[in-house]
Structure prediction request, 130 residues.
Amino acid sequence: MAFKLFQMWLKYICSAQPNENAVLTEAVLVYCFKKQWNDPKLKASVEDIWRGFLDAMDTNEEGYIQREEFRRFFDDIGLPNTSFAEQAFNRIDSNHDGKLSVTVLTHAYVEFMFSEDEDSPYNLCWGPLI
Prediction:
């Protein structure tokens, strides 16, 4: 997983920076992604990385993510406020069965990263957008 993240970093962030000595700020990160936004390989790389994260999130190895596993993920990565997790889970869980398949959750996170739809149900994946 770490190697895949590093490869993606080198390919899509470092190579796209306007100045190789630039500090990675929010503006530089946004610039790098926008420069390569329509590259299908970028989207495939993001999907692949999310599948790895989501496999790790499935702690009981049942093949899907339950509500508590979803919330715990945000605790585990150190987000100080995970109160959004319940609402995010409910918006992603469109059939309301209390389970999210890795496929559904991967789709949600990719849409979160690539969609420009301000009303997307996936906008809460990382908490409310500011």
Observations:
- Helices lie at 2-13, 26-35, 40-57, 67-76, 85-92, 102-114.
- The mean pLDDT is 79.
